Amino acid sequence: MKMYVISDNIDTQTGMRLAGVEGVVVHEHDETVEALHRAIADGDIAIILITEKLAKLVSREMDALKLTYERPLMVEIPDRHGTGRTPDSITKYVREAIGLKI
């Protein structure tokens, strides 16, 4: 099983390649949807990493794909410019999910 990154900038994709994760750089809505479908069709891909900017661009399509397919897992990641989330979003998520304050 492998991971695959769909990024909107070359820096994120290059960093992931250095870690052994293949991927693609796209910028437009249709390119992103096509990249998602190609990744889903590849039976070896277990996790799709997609930058937050692109995930917002194709949010409806991602929601439909998540409901349709059990695999792969789709994970939104920040790009080199950071994240649009609040600074404590991960700790807040953990606190709400398991009741543990970290």
Automatic annotation (TrEMBL):
InterPro entries: ATPase_V1-cplx_f_g_su, ATPase_V1_fsu_sf. Coiled coil: none annotated. It comes from the Bacteria. Keywords: Ion transport, Transport. Signal peptide: none annotated. Gene3D superfamilies: ATPase, V1 complex, subunit F. One of its GO terms (molecular function) is proton-transporting ATPase activity, rotational mechanism. It holds the Pfam family ATP-synt_F. Belongs to the V-ATPase F subunit family. This is V-type ATP synthase subunit F. It comes from Bianquea renquensis.
